[in-house]
Amino acid sequence: MRIARYIPAAGGDPAYGLVEGEGPDAVIVRLDGTPFDGIQPTDERAALADVTLLAPVEPSKVLCMGRNYAEHAKELGNEVPDIPVVFAKFSTSVTGPDSDLLYPALTENLHFEGELAIVIGRRCSKVSPEKAADVILGYTVANDLTLRDMQRAEKQWTRAKGFDGSCPLGPWVETDIDPSSLSLRTTVNGEVRQDGTTADMLLDVAGCVSWVSQTITLLPGDVVLTGTPAGVGSLQVGDEVAVTVEGIGTVTTRIIAG
């Protein structure tokens, strides 16, 4: 299933829906309530092209795995961590799959980081790797936008990683996919900058969920970012960055002048 969150063509409150079909024939079937209450389709249908897709969930928090790809750690001059590194983004950082970002005034080095994102389906804590699949609703695509100069200057990454609009998500949650070996590609203005695979993650999906849940309770709709492969780089005003994960879809962000 592909579960999206959207604003109907006629306007009104955001709703959840199931995306069916491909290309110009794709439709969205409205759900009664949220997918965390059970999947309950209604009779309301609309062409996907006529609605506005939002971030597919509204997380209370986004927990992120740092340096979870060895080559990415090395490209920034860092060692592969002895234990997993975790940082957080906030609900205000989350934006949709086709959005604009004002170039932040406090940086001269805005970077992209394409990532596979895990969406949590139910409240959980201290999850074992063997039980992680039981608490996962599905997967989506993320761009962990980063103020690289601020990240290097400050001893913790809260401002550099958690600024407003720093976590584009979407286009939907894919529930039926094996996340162990998915192609992940990032382009800037159509030029490939990242071309990796989730098979290279140091800590796999189950391990990521287990690790963060040992100390932090995860709620329905929370998101866990799994790290980025090598190839990250800077963005300038006028750039369009697109992150695509195999079997899920693409998140596109345009960088505009503040």
TrEMBL record:
The keyword Metal-binding applies. This is 2-keto-4-pentenoate hydratase/2-oxohepta-3-ene-1,7-dioic acid hydratase (Catechol pathway). Keywords: Metal-binding. One of its GO terms (molecular function) is metal ion binding. Pfam families: FAA_hydrolase, Rv2993c-like_N. GO terms for biological process: carboxylic acid metabolic process. SUPFAM superfamilies: FAH. Residues 1-56 form the Rv2993c-like N-terminal domain. The keyword Membrane does not apply. It comes from Blastococcus haudaquaticus. InterPro entries: Fumarylacetoacetase-like_C, Fumarylacetoacetase_C_sf, Rv2993c-like_N.
